Amino acid sequence: MSAKKSHKFYGHGIPRVKPEDLGGKLIVVEGADGSGRSTQIAELVNWLETSGRPTVQVGLKRSTLVSEELEKAQDGNVLSRTTLSLFYATDFADQLSNIIIPALKAGFIVLADRYIYTLMARDLVRGMDEKWLKNLYGIAPVPDAVFYLSVEPEELVQRNLSKNATLDYWESGMDLGLSRDVFDSFLKYQSAMQNAFKSMQKSYGFDIVDANRSANAVNKELRKKIGSLLDTD
Amino acid sequence: MKTFAESNFPGRLIAVEGLDGSGKSTQIYLLKRWLEAEGIKVYFSEWNSSELVKSATSKGKKRELLTPTTFSLIHATDFADRYERHLVPLLRAGYVVLCDRYIFTAFARDVTRGCPAEWVRGNYSFACAPDLTMFFKADLEVSLNRILEGRPKLKFFEAGMDLRLSTDPYESFKIFQGRILDQYLAMSKEFNFVIMDANENVEKQQVLVRKLVSERIELKKFKRRSPLPLPPSLAGDREEKEELEDKAA
Fold first, then answer.
1. Domain B12-248 class?
2. B85 contacts in A (CB within 8 Å)?
3. Fewer CB within 10 Å: N-end or C-end of chain A?
């Protein structure tokens, strides 16, 4: 693994962690449900590990600390916006402290199935204060690469329905009251989310990947980009 | 940071802050009893008590899973839940809300644990400032003695053991509490704390508390109105009940 250690935090970072101690690589894959994130990540892990590089994976709602409670709270849709937002931030911070930071210190490649951008985009779409969100997520290390798998909302509908035969309440933004019709709401919400990502692209430098294409074509592009990222060390 | 009054809430929020063992909980309890007896619409809320978040917090504490960052965020989540679901609606409905600890507890503790002050304050910036904050200031020795007298088993985070200040929980607790006190005192001016002498006896303190509250808050505005008139079909029941009560009296 590379001896070069160079990571930064978006803001204040976290206590007792020096950014210069963080090596490894942090690679983020963002995108809506049905954009092929999980498939792509599984492929990437396979590829990286086969070529002898140690990886770990993180994702939303996977912390030991709060994932269960978060799931429960979401099922009942009982939490208000700020609370839900802070709950997700806690979930992220737990994985950050216990998985991401130690893995980067050890020179691993961390693959994040979604990162703070999804959390921020969801909140921005719901009218939360951007400055507040930026401060909150100032704990996050700046990734080495962020790939946003962009899929047209109409195509997302098809993929989600063929997989689950139903559209998820939250992925349809039903809490926003955009429409009482799940189908309409899904389309409106997903295009609002895409706009939020596009408006964040400038400040966060996402690499927008056209994921309307086949999984293979997308994976080829990702490998090429990640490959050159790893070669630069 | 604006107070609830400055933000045009009809209700008012009174907070007490201080170290464990400063006697603040006793004082706010006695204040609550008085306000209730005066017919004031009053609601009491405690730090770290949201039902939803509690199980995660206690799991984190028991397994000693929390880092300064997650400790801070999980308490912020707990506070946000109580704030959005209880405090705000009650304050909009014209209640006097009493809080045993408010955001300043987080400001003091989390910063002592090493979180950047601006980060913590930013996270809590959705909350208005109390209309009155009483800080119960006892000598450090007095608070420590009140807590440590019975040699209770101190919990890991309560004793600040995560800070590795000492391997002895009692020693760690003392250093930790001392640092929290420093943090409180450093922000007391900025957030307009009214400093209460917590070394004074309980009754005398309560006299001062009640005096202060009635000076700062126009209590008669927060009185419960007489019960709303019931629909005619039920009105009979109430009259009957009242008659019975009259007879019993």
1. alpha beta
2. 80, 83
3. C
The greatest distance separating any two alpha carbons of chain B, rounded to the nearest whole angstrom, comes to 69
Above 70 in pLDDT, residue A1?
no
| A95: containing domain | 21-210
CB B215 within 8 A of CB B206: no
Residue pointed to by tokens 């490998």: A223
What is the model's pLDDT at position A112? Answer: 98
The residues, ordered by sequence, that sit 6+ positions from B193 with a Cβ below 8 Å of its Cβ are: B17, B104, B133, B134, B135, B184, B187
CA–CA gap between residue A104 and residue B236 (Å, rounded):
73
Q: Which residues partner with B193 through β-bridges?
A: B133
A6 assigned to some structural domain: no
The Cα angle at residue A68 between residues A10 and A63, in degrees rounded to 5 = 35
How do residues A105-147 score in pLDDT, each as one tens digit? Answer: 999 999 999 999 999 999 999 999 999 999 999 999 999 999 9
* Residue A162: CATH number of its domain: 3.40.50.300
pLDDT at B54: 85
CA–CA min distance B120, chain A (Å): 8
Residues in chain B within 8 Å Cβ distance of A81:
84
Establish if A65 touches chain B: CB-CB under 8 angstroms: yes
Q: How far apart are CA A17 and CA B67, in angstroms?
A: 11
pLDDT higher than 70, residue B84: yes
Q: What ipTM was estimated for this complex? A: 0.91
Least trusted range by pLDDT, from A222-231, B20-29, B142-151: B142-151
Q: For residue A166, what are the CA distances in angstroms to A30, A31, A38, A39?
A: 22, 19, 19, 20
Judge whether A54 lies within some domain: yes
**pTM across the whole model:** 0.90
Domain count, chain A: 1
B8, two tokens: 């045009």
Contact B123 A136 (CB under 8 A): yes
- Residue A138 located in a structural domain: yes
Residue A143 neighbours by CB under 8 Å, 6+ apart? A26, A27, A28, A112, A115
Higher pLDDT, B154 or B185: B185
Phi and psi at residue B246, in whole multiples of 5°?
-60, -45
pLDDT > 60? residue A2: no
- Reply yes or no on whether the pLDDT at B4 is more than 50: yes
